[in-house]
Design brief:
The chain is an alpha/beta fold. The chain folds into 4 domains: 137 residues, 3-Layer(aba) Sandwich (Rossmann fold); 77 residues, Helicase, Ruva Protein, domain 3 (Orthogonal Bundle), CATH 1.10.8; 170 residues, Rossmann fold (3-Layer(aba) Sandwich); 75 residues, Helicase, Ruva Protein, domain 3 (Orthogonal Bundle), CATH 1.10.8.60. Helix content is 47%, strand content 14%. The protein is built from 21 helices and 15 strands. The strands form 3 sheets. A 7-stranded mixed beta sheet has the order 9-11-12-13-10-14-15, with helices on both faces. A 6-stranded mixed beta sheet has the order 3-2-4-5-1-6, sandwiched between helices. Strand 2 and strand 3 form a beta hairpin. The protein starts with 9 loop residues before the first helix and ends with a strand.
């Protein structure tokens, strides 16, 4: 099993530095109150400070030390802040869920004045909240630290403790070697300590055992993290790259990188791949490729819906994207699919009426794509290049930009064969060469629909699917390449010197 590192995590070192530097106001973004309480209690002890806590239900209370306080008189936020200013001993003061009170201008003013006062004291006020919510007046006065979810080492320690307890009490059988324990920990990575503890307990409760078979259940629990965020969708998919017809260059490029997130790749000196931008004609396999990458690389797949990022509240859109990024990074290694990214960035050029929201969201996304260090492989798809901000196409955001065109005759034959096989029909019973010639300019999605439509016709006739049913469906279909010929020609012309062909 892995060994817990002796060096403290970076965020704790940063927090310790800010306390020693006498920063008056800090803001810790975390869902894990109990874990943060324990960390701050340890820091308070190491700095020789008292530890105090304020909540809207219990007021200001001393958790350590000999301070005499009247909690019932400090339930109101402004009164609590005034009491903190009068403290005569060095302290760390935890303000829980205080972000809920920052809509009140009186509370905001009182917090600013407390910050000015504490600059000459040895006391630090620390807001602890699950989301970042700062009014403009406080942006320059408060230092923000994101508390990351537990590391794999933290989760391994938790797993060891649970295994020790249940084994000692003979409540369950634990059968885990080092490799299996690491697999369980990897499956739980992205959960809070409380969520991981519940997940391990659930795994034990199912059959009074804790072993390698519990990995799937832990992955199911992890999918709940995505669902609860409300900003992401968890996709369980069994489609692989072999299910895609054509796209040989793209599939080879992806296949050469399937082990790029492994420890062997790190030891070799390889950086983790950033992602790929797929441009192309609608219905030609961009979304299917995104799903297939996750399956082929044995990674979870989450979809970022840019529409959900935008909110009617000023500042909420940027915070939504920040939270979505935090959730995705907590699940890493992971494939993140951003479908039709151009729709979510429509106003990024500043020409819209959204008071710059799109531009700010776009800036946040660009910075993350450029600087992210977590193993998140981003698959962004786009249909319209005229809506894509040019900054998105700059090298460094993605490893490669591929253009997916309409399938050629050979690829159409392959796609038709795949679609027939998927529906338990023998491709050899159909004249695939002739069908491929008859479907010139058809997209992959349209070829799939040809097979489906043919099957409806055969079912209505109460006969087996025959080539004539497919011929009828072809004749009745007007492909998108005909109705949008000018748009597709413009897209091809733009992509010719700017992208890499997928086929």
């Amino acid at each position: 099993m892995s060994v817990m590192p002796t060096e403290r995590p970076r965020f704790i070192r940063d927090l310790d530095t800010l306390i020693r530097a006498r920063y008056p106001l800090l803001y810790l973004v975390s869902w894990e109150e109990q874990r943060v309480d324990a960390l701050l209690a340890e820091l308070a002890r190491s700095h020789g400070k008292d530890l105090l806590e304020w909540t809207a239900t219990r007021g200001l209370r001393a958790l350590t030390g000999t301070l005499k306080l009247a909690p019932e008189e400090t339930v109101e936020p402004a009164r609590a802040l005034a009491a903190i200013a009068k403290l005569n001993t060095p302290a760390l003061v935890i303000l829980k869920d205080f972000h809920r009170h920052l809509d009140d201008p009186v509370t905001v003013r009182a917090l600013r004045e407390l910050g000015f006062h504490l600059k000459t004291q040895f006391t630090t006020a620390i807001v602890v909240a699950p989301t970042l919510k700062l009014p403009d007046e406080l942006e320059k006065d408060v230092s923000v630290i994101d508390v990351p979810l537990p590391s794999k080492a933290d989760l391994l320690d938790l797993l060891k403790d649970i295994a020790r307890v249940v084994t000692k009490n003979k409540r369950a059988v634990v059968e885990l070697n080092r490799e299996q324990a690491d697999a369980l920990v990897s499956a739980a990575h992205g959960l809070t300590l409380a969520e991981a503890e519940n997940a391990f307990a659930k795994a034990i409760a199912q059959d009074n055992r804790l072993d390698s078979s519990d990995v799937k259940m832990l992955l199911d629990e992890k999918s709940q993290v995505v669902r609860k965020s409300g900003l992401l969708e968890y996709h369980a998919t069994d489609q692989s790259l072999s299910d895609i017809g054509g796209l040989t260059s793209l599939k080879r490029w992806l296949d050469r990188r399937k082990d790029a997130f492994s420890e062997d790749a790190r030891a070799f000196g390889l950086p983790e791949p950033k992602g790929v931008l797929l441009l192309g004609v609608q219905g030609c396999g961009k979304s299917l490729t995104a799903k297939s990458i996750a399956t082929s690389w044995r990674l979870p797949l989450v979809r970022l819906d840019m529409g959900r990022i935008y909110s009617g509240f000023i500042g909420s859109s940027e915070e939504n994207l920040r939270l979505a990024i935090l959730v995705v990074e907590s699940l890493a290694p992971v494939v993140m699919w951003v479908d039709e990214i151009e729709k979510g960035l429509a106003g990024a050029g500043g020409g819209g009426n959204d008071t710059g929201v799109s531009a700010r969201v776009f800036g946040t996304l660009l910075t993350w794509l450029q600087e992210k260090t977590a193993p998140v492989f981003v698959v962004a798809t786009a249909n319209r290049i005229d809506s894509l901000p040019p900054e998105l196409l700059r090298k460094g955001r993605f490893d490669e930009i591929f253009f997916i065109d309409l399938p050629n005759a050979k690829e159409r034959k392959e796609i038709l064969a795949l679609q027939l096989s998927r529906r338990s029909r023998d491709p050899a019973a159909f004249p695939l060469d002739a069908l491929a010639q008859a479907t010139d300019q058809f997209s992959g999605a349209e070829l799939e629909q040809i097979v489906v439509s043919g099957m409806y016709e055969a079912f209505a006739d109460r006969v087996a699917l025959e080539p004539r049913h497919l011929d009828t469906a072809i004749k009745e279909t007007l492909p998108l390449a005909v109705t949008m010929a000018e748009d597709i020609d413009r897209l091809r012309h733009w992509a010719r010197r700017r992208t890499r062909p997928a086929s």
